[in-house]
Protein backbone atom coordinates (compact mmCIF):
# COMPACT_ATOMS: atom_id res chain seq x y z
CA UNK A 1 0.00 0.00 0.00
CA UNK A 2 2.88 2.37 0.87
CA UNK A 3 4.60 1.61 -2.47
CA UNK A 4 1.34 2.44 -4.31
CA UNK A 5 1.07 5.75 -2.46
CA UNK A 6 4.69 6.60 -3.25
CA UNK A 7 4.18 5.76 -6.93
CA UNK A 8 1.04 7.80 -7.07
CA UNK A 9 2.74 10.77 -5.42
CA UNK A 10 5.68 10.48 -7.80
CA UNK A 11 3.44 10.30 -10.83
CA UNK A 12 1.46 13.27 -9.57
CA UNK A 13 4.65 15.28 -9.16
CA UNK A 14 5.80 14.25 -12.64
CA UNK A 15 2.49 15.31 -14.20
CA UNK A 16 2.56 18.60 -12.35
CA UNK A 17 6.08 19.19 -13.57
CA UNK A 18 4.99 18.56 -17.15
CA UNK A 19 2.21 21.15 -16.77
CA UNK A 20 4.64 23.68 -15.35
CA UNK A 21 7.13 22.99 -18.15
CA UNK A 22 4.41 23.59 -20.72
CA UNK A 23 3.51 26.90 -19.06
CA UNK A 24 0.11 25.68 -17.97
CA UNK A 25 -1.54 25.64 -14.62
CA UNK A 26 -3.12 22.35 -13.64
CA UNK A 27 -5.97 24.07 -11.86
CA UNK A 28 -6.67 26.28 -14.87
CA UNK A 29 -7.00 23.29 -17.20
CA UNK A 30 -9.63 21.64 -15.07
CA UNK A 31 -13.24 22.32 -16.11
CA UNK A 32 -14.88 24.83 -13.79
CA UNK A 33 -17.09 23.37 -11.15
CA UNK A 34 -20.46 24.98 -10.64
CA UNK A 35 -20.79 26.04 -7.03
CA UNK A 36 -23.45 24.15 -5.26
CA UNK A 37 -26.42 25.88 -3.69
CA UNK A 38 -29.98 26.78 -4.69
CA UNK A 39 -29.66 30.61 -4.47
CA UNK A 40 -27.02 30.68 -7.23
CA UNK A 41 -29.23 28.64 -9.56
CA UNK A 42 -32.14 31.02 -9.04
CA UNK A 43 -29.98 34.08 -9.69
CA UNK A 44 -28.60 32.53 -12.83
CA UNK A 45 -32.07 31.59 -14.09
CA UNK A 46 -33.43 35.06 -13.33
CA UNK A 47 -30.48 36.72 -15.05
CA UNK A 48 -30.83 34.66 -18.21
CA UNK A 49 -34.58 34.13 -18.67
CA UNK A 50 -36.42 34.93 -15.46
CA UNK A 51 -36.59 38.68 -15.99
CA UNK A 52 -38.39 38.09 -19.28
CA UNK A 53 -41.12 36.19 -17.46
CA UNK A 54 -41.41 39.02 -14.96
CA UNK A 55 -41.81 41.61 -17.72
CA UNK A 56 -44.40 39.40 -19.43
CA UNK A 57 -46.44 39.04 -16.25
CA UNK A 58 -46.38 42.82 -15.68
CA UNK A 59 -47.57 43.49 -19.23
CA UNK A 60 -50.33 40.89 -18.96
CA UNK A 61 -51.57 42.39 -15.69
CA UNK A 62 -51.40 45.89 -17.21
CA UNK A 63 -53.50 44.78 -20.19
CA UNK A 64 -56.01 42.55 -18.40
CA UNK A 65 -56.74 44.69 -15.34
CA UNK A 66 -58.87 47.31 -17.19
CA UNK A 67 -60.88 44.53 -18.84
CA UNK A 68 -61.49 42.81 -15.54
CA UNK A 69 -62.48 46.13 -13.96
CA UNK A 70 -65.03 46.84 -16.72
CA UNK A 71 -66.47 43.34 -16.38
CA UNK A 72 -66.72 43.79 -12.61
CA UNK A 73 -68.43 47.18 -13.04
CA UNK A 74 -70.94 45.69 -15.49
CA UNK A 75 -71.92 43.06 -12.93
CA UNK A 76 -72.28 45.62 -10.15
CA UNK A 77 -76.02 46.31 -9.63
CA UNK A 78 -75.38 49.66 -7.90
CA UNK A 79 -74.89 51.50 -11.17
CA UNK A 80 -71.88 53.56 -10.04
CA UNK A 81 -68.13 53.13 -10.18
CA UNK A 82 -67.73 54.03 -6.51
CA UNK A 83 -68.79 50.59 -5.36
CA UNK A 84 -66.81 48.86 -8.11
CA UNK A 85 -63.36 49.52 -6.68
CA UNK A 86 -63.54 46.10 -5.04
CA UNK A 87 -63.59 43.67 -7.91
CA UNK A 88 -66.69 41.46 -8.06
CA UNK A 89 -67.88 42.60 -4.62
CA UNK A 90 -71.46 42.41 -5.96
CA UNK A 91 -72.50 40.26 -8.89
CA UNK A 92 -75.76 40.56 -10.79
CA UNK A 93 -77.19 40.95 -14.28
CA UNK A 94 -79.36 43.95 -13.44
CA UNK A 95 -77.33 46.30 -15.63
CA UNK A 96 -77.65 44.06 -18.68
CA UNK A 97 -81.39 43.65 -18.20
CA UNK A 98 -81.89 47.36 -17.58
CA UNK A 99 -79.92 48.31 -20.68
CA UNK A 100 -81.60 45.83 -23.02
CA UNK A 101 -85.11 46.75 -21.83
CA UNK A 102 -84.61 50.53 -21.70
CA UNK A 103 -86.94 52.69 -23.79
CA UNK A 104 -84.87 55.85 -23.45
CA UNK A 105 -81.69 54.15 -24.68
CA UNK A 106 -82.41 51.73 -27.58
CA UNK A 107 -79.29 49.63 -27.16
CA UNK A 108 -80.56 46.88 -29.47
CA UNK A 109 -80.88 49.37 -32.34
CA UNK A 110 -77.40 50.70 -31.63
CA UNK A 111 -75.98 47.20 -31.68
CA UNK A 112 -77.65 46.29 -34.98
CA UNK A 113 -76.68 49.62 -36.56
CA UNK A 114 -73.06 49.10 -35.62
CA UNK A 115 -72.97 45.57 -37.01
CA UNK A 116 -74.59 46.61 -40.31
CA UNK A 117 -72.45 49.72 -40.80
CA UNK A 118 -69.27 47.90 -39.76
CA UNK A 119 -69.90 44.88 -41.98
CA UNK A 120 -70.80 46.91 -45.08
CA UNK A 121 -67.87 49.27 -44.56
CA UNK A 122 -65.41 46.41 -44.06
CA UNK A 123 -66.56 44.53 -47.18
CA UNK A 124 -66.59 47.63 -49.38
CA UNK A 125 -63.24 48.80 -48.01
CA UNK A 126 -61.64 45.45 -48.77
CA UNK A 127 -63.12 45.31 -52.27
CA UNK A 128 -62.32 48.88 -53.31
CA UNK A 129 -58.89 48.77 -51.70
CA UNK A 130 -58.05 45.52 -53.47
CA UNK A 131 -59.10 46.98 -56.83
CA UNK A 132 -56.98 50.07 -56.33
CA UNK A 133 -54.00 48.10 -55.02
CA UNK A 134 -54.14 45.72 -58.00
CA UNK A 135 -54.19 48.64 -60.40
CA UNK A 136 -51.19 50.33 -58.79
CA UNK A 137 -49.27 47.06 -58.52
CA UNK A 138 -49.91 45.48 -61.92
CA UNK A 139 -50.67 48.34 -64.30
CA UNK A 140 -48.40 51.12 -65.53
CA UNK A 141 -50.17 54.39 -66.30
CA UNK A 142 -49.56 58.12 -66.18
CA UNK A 143 -49.78 59.53 -62.68
CA UNK A 144 -49.25 56.19 -60.94
CA UNK A 145 -46.34 57.36 -58.79
CA UNK A 146 -48.03 60.66 -58.00
CA UNK A 147 -51.18 58.79 -57.00
CA UNK A 148 -49.27 56.60 -54.52
CA UNK A 149 -47.55 59.64 -53.01
CA UNK A 150 -50.89 61.41 -52.73
CA UNK A 151 -52.37 58.49 -50.80
CA UNK A 152 -49.53 58.70 -48.30
CA UNK A 153 -49.64 62.47 -47.96
CA UNK A 154 -53.40 62.58 -47.42
CA UNK A 155 -53.08 60.18 -44.50
CA UNK A 156 -50.74 62.61 -42.71
CA UNK A 157 -53.72 64.80 -41.83
CA UNK A 158 -56.14 63.39 -39.23
CA UNK A 159 -59.76 62.97 -40.17
CA UNK A 160 -60.72 65.25 -37.29
CA UNK A 161 -59.59 68.25 -39.35
CA UNK A 162 -62.27 67.50 -41.94
CA UNK A 163 -65.22 67.26 -39.54
CA UNK A 164 -66.62 70.68 -40.40
CA UNK A 165 -66.14 70.10 -44.13
CA UNK A 166 -67.80 66.66 -43.86
CA UNK A 167 -70.78 68.14 -42.04
CA UNK A 168 -71.28 70.91 -44.61
CA UNK A 169 -70.79 68.46 -47.48
CA UNK A 170 -73.28 65.94 -46.12
CA UNK A 171 -75.80 68.73 -45.49
CA UNK A 172 -75.51 69.91 -49.09
CA UNK A 173 -75.74 66.36 -50.44
CA UNK A 174 -78.79 65.68 -48.27
CA UNK A 175 -80.66 68.56 -49.94
CA UNK A 176 -80.21 66.85 -53.31
CA UNK A 177 -80.05 63.14 -52.36
CA UNK A 178 -81.69 62.69 -48.94
CA UNK A 179 -80.89 58.94 -48.90
CA UNK A 180 -77.14 59.56 -48.58
CA UNK A 181 -77.17 62.86 -46.74
CA UNK A 182 -77.04 63.85 -43.12
CA UNK A 183 -78.53 61.49 -40.50
CA UNK A 184 -78.36 58.44 -42.77
CA UNK A 185 -76.36 55.24 -42.45
CA UNK A 186 -75.54 55.26 -46.16
CA UNK A 187 -73.96 58.68 -45.84
CA UNK A 188 -71.90 57.56 -42.86
CA UNK A 189 -70.69 54.50 -44.77
CA UNK A 190 -69.60 56.68 -47.70
CA UNK A 191 -67.64 58.91 -45.35
CA UNK A 192 -65.92 55.89 -43.82
CA UNK A 193 -65.05 54.51 -47.25
CA UNK A 194 -63.51 57.78 -48.35
CA UNK A 195 -61.36 58.02 -45.25
CA UNK A 196 -60.16 54.41 -45.18
CA UNK A 197 -59.47 53.90 -48.87
CA UNK A 198 -56.07 55.61 -48.88
CA UNK A 199 -54.22 53.83 -46.10
CA UNK A 200 -55.73 50.43 -46.93
CA UNK A 201 -54.83 50.79 -50.59
CA UNK A 202 -51.21 51.49 -49.74
CA UNK A 203 -51.17 48.59 -47.27
CA UNK A 204 -52.54 46.17 -49.87
CA UNK A 205 -50.22 47.57 -52.54
CA UNK A 206 -47.17 46.37 -50.61
CA UNK A 207 -48.65 42.88 -50.27
CA UNK A 208 -49.67 42.68 -53.94
CA UNK A 209 -46.06 43.39 -54.92
CA UNK A 210 -44.92 40.21 -53.15
CA UNK A 211 -46.90 38.06 -55.60
CA UNK A 212 -44.77 37.15 -58.66
CA UNK A 213 -45.88 38.71 -61.91
CA UNK A 214 -45.12 35.41 -63.63
CA UNK A 215 -48.50 34.18 -62.39
CA UNK A 216 -50.23 37.00 -64.25
CA UNK A 217 -48.18 36.40 -67.37
CA UNK A 218 -49.00 32.68 -67.40
CA UNK A 219 -52.70 33.49 -67.05
CA UNK A 220 -52.52 36.06 -69.86
CA UNK A 221 -50.93 33.45 -72.14
CA UNK A 222 -53.99 31.27 -71.51
CA UNK A 223 -56.23 34.16 -72.56
CA UNK A 224 -57.26 35.55 -69.16
CA UNK A 225 -57.85 39.27 -68.77
CA UNK A 226 -57.27 41.53 -65.81
CA UNK A 227 -60.73 40.91 -64.36
CA UNK A 228 -60.38 37.13 -64.50
CA UNK A 229 -56.86 37.23 -63.06
CA UNK A 230 -57.96 39.51 -60.24
CA UNK A 231 -61.09 37.63 -59.17
CA UNK A 232 -59.95 34.03 -59.70
CA UNK A 233 -56.22 34.11 -58.89
CA UNK A 234 -55.02 37.23 -57.09
CA UNK A 235 -57.81 37.49 -54.52
CA UNK A 236 -57.09 33.95 -53.30
CA UNK A 237 -53.38 34.65 -52.93
CA UNK A 238 -53.91 37.89 -51.01
CA UNK A 239 -56.55 36.49 -48.64
CA UNK A 240 -54.40 37.23 -45.53
CA UNK A 241 -54.16 40.96 -46.19
CA UNK A 242 -57.85 41.07 -47.05
CA UNK A 243 -58.63 39.56 -43.65
CA UNK A 244 -56.38 42.07 -41.88
CA UNK A 245 -57.87 45.07 -43.67
CA UNK A 246 -61.42 43.85 -43.06
CA UNK A 247 -60.79 43.31 -39.37
CA UNK A 248 -59.09 46.69 -38.90
CA UNK A 249 -61.86 48.43 -40.80
CA UNK A 250 -64.58 46.80 -38.69
CA UNK A 251 -62.79 47.70 -35.45
CA UNK A 252 -62.24 51.32 -36.50
CA UNK A 253 -65.91 51.73 -37.44
CA UNK A 254 -67.06 50.18 -34.17
CA UNK A 255 -64.82 52.47 -32.12
CA UNK A 256 -65.45 55.65 -34.07
CA UNK A 257 -67.17 58.43 -32.16
CA UNK A 258 -66.39 61.76 -33.80
CA UNK A 259 -67.67 61.18 -37.34
CA UNK A 260 -70.68 59.14 -36.20
CA UNK A 261 -71.71 61.80 -33.69
CA UNK A 262 -71.61 64.47 -36.41
CA UNK A 263 -73.48 62.53 -39.10
CA UNK A 264 -76.14 60.71 -37.02
CA UNK A 265 -78.77 62.62 -35.06
CA UNK A 266 -81.80 60.43 -34.28
CA UNK A 267 -81.39 58.20 -31.19
CA UNK A 268 -82.55 55.11 -33.09
CA UNK A 269 -79.86 55.55 -35.74
CA UNK A 270 -76.87 55.95 -33.44
CA UNK A 271 -73.96 53.55 -33.24
CA UNK A 272 -72.68 51.94 -30.06
CA UNK A 273 -69.89 54.45 -29.44
CA UNK A 274 -72.23 57.45 -29.64
CA UNK A 275 -75.12 55.77 -27.88
CA UNK A 276 -73.08 54.52 -24.94
CA UNK A 277 -71.67 58.00 -24.45
CA UNK A 278 -75.17 59.28 -23.83
CA UNK A 279 -75.49 56.89 -20.90
CA UNK A 280 -72.79 58.79 -19.00
CA UNK A 281 -73.22 62.29 -20.50
CA UNK A 282 -75.92 63.26 -18.01
CA UNK A 283 -74.24 65.42 -15.33
CA UNK A 284 -76.87 64.51 -12.74
CA UNK A 285 -76.69 60.73 -13.09
CA UNK A 286 -74.26 58.63 -15.09
CA UNK A 287 -75.16 54.96 -15.33
CA UNK A 288 -71.62 53.58 -15.43
CA UNK A 289 -72.77 50.06 -14.72
CA UNK A 290 -75.00 50.03 -17.82
CA UNK A 291 -72.20 51.67 -19.78
CA UNK A 292 -69.83 48.87 -18.77
CA UNK A 293 -72.42 46.25 -19.65
CA UNK A 294 -72.88 47.79 -23.08
CA UNK A 295 -69.12 47.92 -23.61
CA UNK A 296 -68.78 44.23 -22.72
CA UNK A 297 -71.50 43.23 -25.18
CA UNK A 298 -70.04 45.52 -27.85
CA UNK A 299 -66.70 43.69 -27.62
CA UNK A 300 -68.25 40.31 -28.43
CA UNK A 301 -68.54 40.78 -32.25
CA UNK A 302 -64.94 41.98 -32.49
CA UNK A 303 -63.69 39.00 -30.50
CA UNK A 304 -65.70 36.56 -32.62
CA UNK A 305 -64.45 38.13 -35.85
CA UNK A 306 -60.87 38.06 -34.61
CA UNK A 307 -61.01 34.38 -33.71
CA UNK A 308 -62.60 33.52 -37.07
CA UNK A 309 -59.87 35.35 -39.01
CA UNK A 310 -57.01 34.39 -36.73
CA UNK A 311 -55.65 31.62 -38.94
CA UNK A 312 -55.50 33.99 -41.91
CA UNK A 313 -53.91 36.80 -39.91
CA UNK A 314 -51.23 34.72 -38.20
CA UNK A 315 -50.47 32.05 -40.79
CA UNK A 316 -51.20 34.00 -43.93
CA UNK A 317 -49.06 37.05 -43.28
CA UNK A 318 -45.95 34.96 -42.65
CA UNK A 319 -46.63 32.88 -45.76
CA UNK A 320 -47.20 35.98 -47.85
CA UNK A 321 -43.89 37.50 -46.82
CA UNK A 322 -41.94 34.89 -48.84
CA UNK A 323 -44.06 34.82 -51.97
Features:
323 residues, MetI-like fold, 2 domains, globular, disordered N terminus
Question: How would you characterize the overall build of this protein?
Answer:
The protein is an all-alpha fold. The protein folds into 2 domains: 1-33, no CATH class; 98-320, MetI-like (MetI-like fold, Orthogonal Bundle). The chain is built from 15 helices and no strands. It has helices at 2-21, 26-29, 38-74, 94-100, 107-138, 144-154, 163-176, 185-208, 213-221, 226-237, 239-255, 258-263, 272-280, 288-308, 310-320. Helix 3 (38-74) packs across helix 14. The longest helix is centred in the first third of the chain and has 37 residues, at 38-74. It is globular, with a radius of gyration of 32 Å. The N and C termini lie far apart (77 Å). 24% of the residues are buried. Mean pLDDT is 80; it is low at 1-7.
Q: What is the number of domains?
A: 2
**CATH homologous superfamily label of the largest domain:** MetI-like
Round the mean pLDDT to the nearest integer and report it: 80
CATH architect. name of the largest domain: Orthogonal Bundle
Radius of gyration: 32 Å
Amino acid sequence: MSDFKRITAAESALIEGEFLAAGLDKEATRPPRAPSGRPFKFRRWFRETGWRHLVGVVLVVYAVLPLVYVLSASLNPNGTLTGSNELFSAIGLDSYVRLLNSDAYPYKNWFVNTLVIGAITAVCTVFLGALAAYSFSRMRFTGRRMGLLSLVLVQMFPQLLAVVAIYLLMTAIGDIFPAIGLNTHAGLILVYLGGALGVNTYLMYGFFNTIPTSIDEAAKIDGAGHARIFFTIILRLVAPILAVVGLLSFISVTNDFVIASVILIDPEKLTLAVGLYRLVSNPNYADWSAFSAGAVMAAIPIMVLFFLLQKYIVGGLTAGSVK
